[in-house]
Every structure is written in structure tokens, then in C-alpha cells.
Amino acid sequence: MKEKKTLRDLDVKGKRVLVRVDFNVPLDEQGNIVDDTRIRASLPTIEYLLDARARIILMSHLDRPKGRDPRLSLAPVAKRLSRFVGREVKLAEDCVGESVERAVAELREGEILLLENLRFHREETEGDENFARRLARLGEVFVGDAFGTCHRKHASVYLVPKFLKPAVMGFLLEKEINYFKRAMVNPQRPVVGVLGGAKVSTKLGIVKNLLERVDKLFVGGAMAFTFLRSMGYSVGSSLVEEELVPTARDILETAKSRAVKLYLPVDFVIGREVSENTPTRVVPWQEIPQGWMGLDIGHVSLELLREIIGDAQTIIWNGPMGVFELDRFKNGTFETARMIAESSALTIAGGGDTDHAIHRAGVYNAIDFVSTGGGAFLELLKGNSLPCLEVLDDRA
Ligand code: AMP
User: Fold this and answer.
1) Which residues bind substrate (predicted)?
2) Does the pLDDT of residue 281 top 90, yes or no?
3) Which of 117, 140, 171 finishes a domain?
4) Averaged pLDDT of the chain
């Protein structure tokens, strides 16, 4: 990973600074913001720019509108942000066009203008060059701070920084990348990976990359059953990806040859179907009966996990240990969250479900860093680079 310039490397006083933030917050039916974590996460960059007396132009997408849709206006975000920064945040009528250019021209030092939802224009997700140039024209400096969309080649995140220089990282992006490097590039050892989720197929890249970087890897969630099947055990009607059984066998071999300890759960909470009302039992891993499926990890597995992370200096976690959406099967995931939160290791977690589980388990503040980006975090875990980071200016 190349070192990138950050906001700290520039003098932005009086400059029109175009910042791509991620204000893609969840809204309820009435259009109220349900969770403003992402707005809060961009405050360090915005407050720095206010102190530096820049002219601040913020841009973001919100959800997936098909064309202009008043229900997906960034108006509630402008209101919430203005409360956080203690001053007015103006909302532009659109994100490109004459009225926006006028509003930008009128912007004084220390003022904030939020552009309207970028995805009101389909050119944003299509990665349209002309659209990107119209956005780029608005600023004199580009700041990339939308970690959550860094894996996408959309116009505002990937093309604008090619047309508008200097283009540097904001503080959220810098923090995301720094934590990731601390966990995966220069970690304090032992490093423990904790991986869960539904499918080996979607996590294959992550498993392979983690095997090169961690000392121990615990694989829970439904993924565990494809591994158990590859070892010759019968797993009842648990979720198994038959076509990946040979791959799972290879992964176990690779782990052995690299001296990475790969652990699987040793007991499961089983049910007859994925439902809140199904009868349940707890059984050792080799005793899942026909007609039953593993839907969560059991207490013995949690004790095993406690031992595994006992001497860890670094823990990186992605993916639920069971069907945590149902009360009957949430314990394994929530206990994992609590256990990781209690650890004195550097703890990093990410992914949509993982983030959700950490919030629901009430341990968000006890984990050192919870990534704000689902897909982008997974790309980093796979060892892939992020296109929107690559296009930012290198530090000489
Ligand atoms: P992923 O997006 O791959 O991280 O998978 C998350 C999903 O995996 C969640 O919706 C969980 O309900 C599901 N999941 C975790 N463990 C199991 C399991 N044992 N059986 C079925 N689904 C599971």
C-alpha cells in the first residue's frame, strides 16, 4: 500500500475544498435518521476544514434513488450536521448545474454547502466522465473521505480525484486505512482472525488472504459446515456448499503447511429449520442428526474461542457465528462480540452484519475500531486495493 497525502499536507485557507463524504445513513419511513454514526465519523475532517477557514463543499450519495426522489433528499443530513457543527449547513438544490455553481461562488470562508444526493443522477454510479468534470469544477482541492464507497468506481469517488488536484485523504479514510494496516500489515502478534457468515464462496478470498497474515483463524457461521463436510463428517441439513468441499479441504491443507492454526466450532445449537419456533438442541460437531441443521455455535465453542484469543495481541473479526437475526440463535455472535470487546488486544471488526451485531450487543465503544464500510472493508480483507484510494496523490 502506497503512502497517500492527507489533508494535513495542504494549506486550505480560503480554498474551495470539495469533500466526498459518506452520509449514506439509514432513514425510517418518515425520513428520520435512524443511525448517524457515519455523519459523526466525518466530523474530524469537517471540523479541521472549519478551523482552517476553508470554503467547504460536501457531497454524498444516499441510498439508491432511481432519479430525483424527494424522500431521499440529504435535507435531514444537512440539519443533523448543522447541529453537530453548531452552524448553518446550506443544502444545494442539486449537485451539478448553474444554481450549484452560484451557491459555490457565494460560499465564504468557514461556510459549508452540502450538495444534494449524487445518485439523483445515474451518471454517478455509471462513472460518467462528463458528470465527474462538472463536479470537479466546483472545488480547488479534493478530499476523499467516503471509505464506504472506496471499492466502487463511481464518478464522485473515483473520477473526480483524477480531474481535481490536489486530491488527498480525509481523516476518516486515513483512520480506516491506518487501523487496517495495524491489524494486517504490521501487526503485533499473535494475530487471530475470527470469521463467520453464510458462505465460503463469498469469503474465499478473505480466508486465503487471512491465512497469509494471521497466526490463528477461527471459522464459525454456516461456513464451518463446508469445512466439516470436507473432513468427512455428516452435518445433517446444515448449509453446505457442495462444490466448495474440495476447496475447503485445500484450505485446511494450506493452513497446516503454513502453520496457521485453523479452528472450527466444536458444538452447535441445532434446529429443524431456520425459524424462531423450531425445537433446538445443543450437540457436539460430529453428532448433528439427519433433518437437523446447525444454526449457532454452542458454549464449548465459545470457550474454545476464548482460549484462542486469550494471548492475542491483534484480533480481526468479520461475520456472524450463527443466524443472529433470530433470538434463538444470536447468543454465539453476541458472546463473540462481548469477548472481543473485553480483550486487551487491538480489536478491529467490520462488515454490515458484524457492525449490526456489535451495536445490538451493546459493545460498540469497547471495540478499538469498527469499520464504517462493509464492502470496502471486505475488499481490504481479501488483500485487494481500493480504486478510490489509488487515485489519490502519493506522498513523495
Ligand atoms: P455473510 O454475509 O456471508 O457474512 O453471512 C451473514 C449471514 O450468515 C447472516 O444472515 C446469518 O444469518 C447467516 N448465518 C450465519 N450462520 C449460519 C448458519 N449456521 N446457518 C445459516 N445461516 C447462517
Assistant:
1) 22-24, 38, 61-64, 119, 152
2) yes
3) 171
4) 96
